[in-house]
């Protein structure tokens, strides 16, 4: 039973953003984003390039502190909390680029993410390596020498090994071959059964495979919230906001 | 991965190994080149002297490479940490001498007193490093020009404080008696202190390599150097880690200062600047952020200085600049520098 479950009812959001504005330099990226994610499964953030999806994840994670608005995670306000403290509350983050440390081995990448190396975490590691068997093969190899797909698997696996309440994953399929994207999709489906995932993804098929609930962002605002299967039926919305 | 790709990788691996082997052979050849002009006994004596000088420079350079190479901070206050360490060591040894203990002939006793002086200097260096990093450096991360300006300022302030505490004159450092002695092995004249300097340098190198490569804190430091964001989002306070690295670098500079003070048997407020230049050359030759590079670079600088000082004394200082220029032309990132 995940430790975060205590005290929260199943329909309470584990994360919500309330009218969040984020500025990066002079650019006003998020313009009043409000969204909430409930426990279980995966929530997808969709939108065109430059819509503010990655910025939303980074704002939640504290990498781009919001200029106004409120972010609440597991009942705690985190919009002024430092990134490393947010991570310790139970949030994991897989960034879009450079999600692994190239100069560290696969083993060292895992060891870095295991803040407490106890029996439970080691058991998690064994389960994760069953999910991503290729990583065990390259255990002593530097992450920079892995293929793109293997690096992406490592990026997700090293975050998943800890008991996070929420995983933020930013465009994991970017630049990957279709067969690798399929493998990634299968892994994400199994991950979302164990921990809540917010997934930013441009690959609509992967998004449909992994998630049920979705938000569309456009120009820093939420323009749609609903089930992804309902979105798939709305051709006009798909064309206007996703370009497909 | 296809078999063709595996073959290509294997071939590249073998080629790299051959190249590394050739490089090492060339290095050893250059190392033995002075034998053409110097007799073997003198060569060995100069080699021991050069290695000990190299290890003393490595102590300063290792701190600099940690701070510049790992944290990307241009710290010109490093010389001040070195000088403060030298004066701290001088004060501790003076205190020990006031009890009459410095004149023990026992090698173990002398080593113990030296360790006390080094430990105290290291602690002082670390404290100064923490204060400097928290008050000054944290505000100028990412801005090399500001780092240069503020650290030069910090250096001036620290040296002036030092002059207030210890005065402006050169001071004689009491050296533990056993270290003033020497022994002869196969005709080679070796001072005990030089052996201590070599052993200390090797131990610091081994210790740094162990910490950086085998411990969790080493993994965190190496990770933080490569990607701060991943370290922060994993749950580590990157600011605290960088403070720790800065403190370690300052402590190493201070330890180097004490060793140099004992080596020269004197301290003066300007000694840091003289050795900072050597340390910078070592870091550039070895490659930024590479402790192994600093170690090899320090050996190169120490040996070349001693050989050339014997053969052509006027070129002793200049030869290291020449070596640095040649290495930068052939390999701009240094011998072991990363891209």
Structure description:
The complex is a heterodimer of chains A (244) and B (339). Chain A is α/β, with parallel strands linked by helices and 244 residues long. Chain A has a single domain, classed as 3-Layer(aba) Sandwich (Rossmann fold). Helix content of chain A is 37%, strand content 25%. Chain A contains 10 helices and 10 strands. In chain A, strands 6-7-8-3-9-10 form a 6-stranded mixed sheet, sandwiched between helices. In chain A, strands 2-1-4-5 form a 4-stranded antiparallel sheet, with helices on one face. In chain A, 45% of the residues are buried. Chain B is mainly alpha-helical and 339 residues long. Chains A and B meet through helix 2 and helix 3 of A and helix 7 and helix 8 of B.
Can you lay out the helices and strands and say which pair or pack?
The complex is a heterodimer of chains A (244) and B (339).
Chain A: E1 15-24, E2 27-37, E3 42-46, H1 53-60, E4 68-73, E5 76-77, H2 83-90, E6 91-94, H3 106-113, H4 119-131, H5 133-137, H6 148-160, E7 166-170, H7 178-192, E8 196-200, H8 204-210, E9 213-218, E10 221-227, H9 228-233, H10 235-242
Helix pairs in contact in A: 3-6, 6-7
Chain B: H1 3-32, H2 40-71, H3 78-98, H4 107-135, H5 144-166, E1 171-172, E2 182-185, E3 188-191, H6 192-214, H7 216-226, H8 228-234, H9 238-264, E4 266-267, H10 271-286, H11 291-311, H12 316-330
Antiparallel strand pairs in B: 1-4, 2-3
Rounded mean pLDDT score of chain A: 89
CATH C-level of chain A: Alpha Beta
Largest sheet: number of strands, sense, barrel closure of chain A = 6 strands, mixed
Outline the low-pLDDT stretches of chain B.
Answer: none
Q: How many β-strand runs of chain B?
A: 4
């Amino acid at each position: 039973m995940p430790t975060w479950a205590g005290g929260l009812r199943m329909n309470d959001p584990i994360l919500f953003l309330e009218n969040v504005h984020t500025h990066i330099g002079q650019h006003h990226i998020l313009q009043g984003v409000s969204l909430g994610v409930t426990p279980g499964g995966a929530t997808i953030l969709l939108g065109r390039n430059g819509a503010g999806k990655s910025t939303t994840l980074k704002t939640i994670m504290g990498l781009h502190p919001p200029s106004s608005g409120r972010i609440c995670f597991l009942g705690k306000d985190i919009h002024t909390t430092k990134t490393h403290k947010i991570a310790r509350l139970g949030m994991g983050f897989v960034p879009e680029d450079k999600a692994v440390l190239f100069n560290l081995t696969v083993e060292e990448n895992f060891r870095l993410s295991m803040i407490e190396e106890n029996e439970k975490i080691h058991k998690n590691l064994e389960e994760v390596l069953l999910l991503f068997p290729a990583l065990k093969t390259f255990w002593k190899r530097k992450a920079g020498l892995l293929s793109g797909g293997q690096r992406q698997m490592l990026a997700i696996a090293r975050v998943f090994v800890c008991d996070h309440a929420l995983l933020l994953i930013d465009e994991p399929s970017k630049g990957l071959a279709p067969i690798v994207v399929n493998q990634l999709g299968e892994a994400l489906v199994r991950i979302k059964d164990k921990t809540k995932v917010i997934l930013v993804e441009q690959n609509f098929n992967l998004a449909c495979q992994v998630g049920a609930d979705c938000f569309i962002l456009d120009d820093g605002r939420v323009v749609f919230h609903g089930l992804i299967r309902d979105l798939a039926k709305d051709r006009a919305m798909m064309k206007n906001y996703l370009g497909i | 991965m296809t078999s063709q790709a595996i073959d290509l990788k294997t071939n590249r691996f073998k080629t790299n190994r051959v190249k590394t082997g050739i490089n090492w052979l060339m290095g050893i050849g250059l190392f033995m080149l002075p034998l053409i002009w110097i007799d073997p006994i003198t060569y060995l004596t100069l080699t021991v002297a050069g290695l000990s000088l190299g290890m003393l420079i490595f102590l300063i350079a290792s701190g600099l490479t940690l701070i510049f190479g790992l944290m990307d901070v241009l710290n010109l206050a490093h010389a001040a940490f070195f000088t403060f360490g030298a004066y701290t060591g001088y004060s501790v040894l003076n205190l020990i001498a006031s009890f009459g203990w410095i004149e023990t002939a026992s090698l173990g006793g002398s080593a113990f007193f030296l360790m006390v002086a080094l430990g105290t200097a290291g602690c002082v260096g670390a404290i100064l490093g923490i204060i400097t990093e928290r008050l000054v450096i944290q505000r100028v991360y990412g801005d090399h020009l500001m780092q240069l300006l503020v650290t030069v300022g910090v250096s001036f302030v620290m040296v002036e404080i030092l002059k207030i505490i210890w005065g402006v004159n050169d001071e004689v450092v009491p050296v533990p008696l056993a270290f003033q002695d020497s022994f002869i092995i196969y005709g080679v004249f070796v001072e005990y202190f030089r052996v201590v300097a070599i052993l200390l340098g090797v131990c610091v190198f081994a210790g740094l390599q162990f910490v950086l490569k085998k411990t969790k804190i080493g993994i965190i430091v190496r990770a933080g150097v490569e990607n701060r964001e991943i370290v922060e989002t994993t749950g580590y306070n990157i600011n605290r880690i960088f403070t720790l690295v800065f403190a370690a670098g300052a402590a190493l500079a201070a330890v180097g200062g004490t060793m140099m003070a004992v080596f020269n048997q004197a301290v003066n407020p300007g000694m840091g600047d003289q050795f900072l230049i050597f340390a910078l050359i070592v870091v550039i030759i070895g490659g930024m952020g590479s402790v192994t590079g600093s170690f090899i670079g320090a050996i190169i600088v120490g040996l070349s200085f001693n050989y050339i000082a014997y053969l052509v004394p006027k070129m002793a200082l200049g030869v290291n600049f020449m070596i640095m220029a040649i290495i930068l032309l052939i390999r701009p990132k240094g011998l072991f520098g990363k891209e």
